Amino acid sequence: MVGGLGAAASAQAHYKHHARAKNHIRLSPTKPSQKAPTAGVIQIDINPAHALNTFTPNLTLGASVDAIGTDGIPVIFTPSNIQNMLSAGGGSLSDRLYTELNVQDWHWNPTGTWSDAAKSQGYFTGSSSLGPAINDSYGFLLTHRGSTYDQGDNQDYSRITDGDPATYWKSNPYLTSTYTKESDTLHPQWVLVDLGSAQSVNAVKIQWSNPYAISYAVQYWTGHDALYDPTNGQWTNFANGVINNGAGGTVTLKLGSTPTSAQFIRVVMTQSSNTYDTHGSSDPRNKMGYAIAELGVGTVNSSGTFTDLIVHSKSQNQTPIYASSTDPWHASTAQNPLTEQIGFDYMFNSPLSLGLPMLVAAPMIYSTPDNAVAEVAYLNKRGFPLIGIELGEEPDGQFMTPEDYGAFYVQWANAIHAVYPDQKLGGPVLSNSSVLTWTDTKGNSDWMSRFVGYLISHSALQSLSFVSTEHYPFAVPSADWSLMFQEPNQVQTLFDEFSNALVPSTVPVYVTEYNLDSGPTEATVDIMGAAWHAMFVGEYLNRGGKGAFYYQDFPVQLATDGTAWGLLGMFTSDANDQVTGRTSQYYSNVMINRLWCLPGKGQHTVLPVNSSIKDGSGNIVVYPYAVLRPDGLFSVLLINADSTPHTVSLNFNDSTSHSFSGLTSRYWLNSSNYVWHANGINGYASPNGPIEAIASRSDSSITYTLTAHSITIIRGKVK
């Protein structure tokens, strides 16, 4: 048990459960090789003028750490576990913000002040004063939560459909004109109901709370899926669904003379009554935005009897409902009992930090600018080295519009830079780089370009020191090597998305967490997971990437996504979170961090490489990546994604041809030293390492045989 969590629940707490998981599609497979050539040439361009990128491994190739079960620090961070994690050779850490995914406010410092100090409730600001070390920090449930959906260990529910008229959802006050400095019509707030299937609808029943909407519209979605297919359809007002003289109270609104068949219904609000909510007039934020106590969707008959299609419940058995934003108001009694974020002092002082700069998060979507400023102040007072600060996490997972996230970003950035003008800030921390949203009035449905456009229109693009995304390209339960052929294009698309959104080329692209899949599938622990990992790193560096953080460092138990058992990470663990075995991605981390690259500091140069090795369908099947290390050695990483062995020669070129000369080192991972055996929660690898190695003399006549489905590194001097 970890902090009251059972073993399986403890393991699951480490995994991302993205609200947009349906976007992680399994791409169409390519027919595998039937007959492959027996030899091929790898051409490596060593002309310094043609270099693709430079990087320092321990600052560029790191790992992500995430939330853990309550009181889990002494259980997870044992000397043995730490030794195992460090042995993989990763660099800087990326601290993930789990609370944003659970619609909670993160008390990064358990000590702080409340806006309603007498009752220990309201809006919380962590203390920037230096005191005892912060080892544990926690998320707090929001009193006026709007969304039902569950991510990770969240057990909360929407107050819009909990059946209790005394509770209510309230939108975020920081999206009102007082803070955005623009009309509220530019940030319409909405609540959306998913009825599960198309139903006949001709009425809604809204029990308004304060502040209520004076102007609002009730709409239905004309397409198949308003949430996961947002460009194939549109929001259409019901015939009688537009209200411009709302007076609050309980309203049963007949939407038309005949029922409309619809699955997705939303109420869009554009003008507030600005009347104070139940928390009174002591804080002006209490009157900003919109509040709904209960919402019904259904039909009304000729006698005025309303039949509700929504399930109202104080649990996640509610009819699914989503909200554009949620007021971060909460109480001191609302701490999440299941999960904690590792405290700043513990993380920065841990051996895992290696004393390197860290990428940290600041709560934004469910917090306040004052809390973010206090966090930055605390980090600066402690002198903790920072790569930068990500603002929020996965706004697309919260189904936020890019304009609303942009409004938050501008406010938070302005507040932080007013005190710390040189602090590097970034985002938007998308769950995957290519995100589409409901089309705006200009016909634009690209989330990222609209976010950047918002920053440009508000003279705030200079506050974006880096752009960030997560990268989970495939949803695949078991190994399908044909997907490997598609990863280079996936990485190119990632960079193109930011370029097409007019992010300046000087702004670095960080991938702040990544893995093959977002769930614990078998493919990640199969050798394919290691090969994909090596390919992603090579492709990312080839395109100029400056910071990629593998997900994740911690040992976890095997878990299932419903079809297969696996995990995201380098280590299997027992029920007490102790390492019991190494996965294929442990070995890919070692090969990248300790064998391909020179461990520790030092600038590496990324070299252009071409492969002529293709299968019978014309797909490149041997993927090469090369670096010139600061010790003068050329290091070539070769991934054979084919089910057939291939023999290769390596040719180094500037104005003339060169080859490895003298003693070279060769390392490999293949089925001779790693095989995963699926056995449910008891799955295991046998053999399970070590990475095999050989040293031999090389010259221009030497060829190398790459076994099927393998990773190979060849390293030496070039003459």
How would you describe the overall organization of this protein?
The chain is α+β, with helices and mostly antiparallel strands and 719 residues long. The protein folds into 2 domains: 7-27 and 39-137 and 337-605, TIM Barrel, CATH 3.20.20; 169-327, Jelly Rolls (Sandwich), CATH 2.60.120. It is 18% helix and 33% strand. The chain contains 14 helices and 43 strands. The strands form 10 sheets. Strands 5-3-27-26-25-24-23-22 form an 8-stranded parallel β-sheet. A 7-stranded antiparallel β-sheet has the order 2-32-34-35-43-38-41. α9 (402-419) crosses α10 (447-457), α11 packs parallel to α13 and α13 (527-542) packs parallel to α14. Residues 1-37 have low confidence and may be disordered.
